[in-house]
């Protein structure tokens, strides 16, 4: 009876974030993902059925971790009173700065997850849910920007912009992974320059920003 009572307590206290935390701790301590859901649950004294209430597999959990990074980032943004008054450009910058702060707080896990398999595409498959969320977020931003343009000719394609933002995100993610600067200051510079360049391109005033961004990439030996 005592065991049943402990399990009930565990069941009541288990949350998505707690499950994610247990999984991240496991892979960092063992250098690999658990062999089976059963073994993982037994080791952490949780019921297997409780695991499946949140995710159907470790693959689903891995994708969910990246989605939670996004959700936590957006939650932080909306706590700021100033955020809603920002321009689309400022919102994009703030999103990236906050998102990469989240990644930095979990850098050991992120590097493990993105280097787990020899084939890069297999590692990137865990970003599937994040891709949808980032593209949706960026579509909303360009939609806001288009409202300020009186002529339809000057409005930008939401689909094209969202795809461009995702490519930009992957570039910044790789940059951050390779960044050895103190407090990842080079990543902050890359975020600012790449976002400003992207918005300048969409605002049809690209030349100066593109040249500046190109010089930065050359300096950082990215091209």
Automatic annotation (TrEMBL):
Protein name (database record): TetR family transcriptional regulator C-terminal domain-containing protein
- One Pfam annotation, family name? TetR_C_23
Q: Which organism is it from?
A: Salegentibacter chungangensis
Top-rank lineage group of the source organism: Bacteria
Q: Where is the Tetracyclin repressor-like C-terminal domain?
A: 91-217
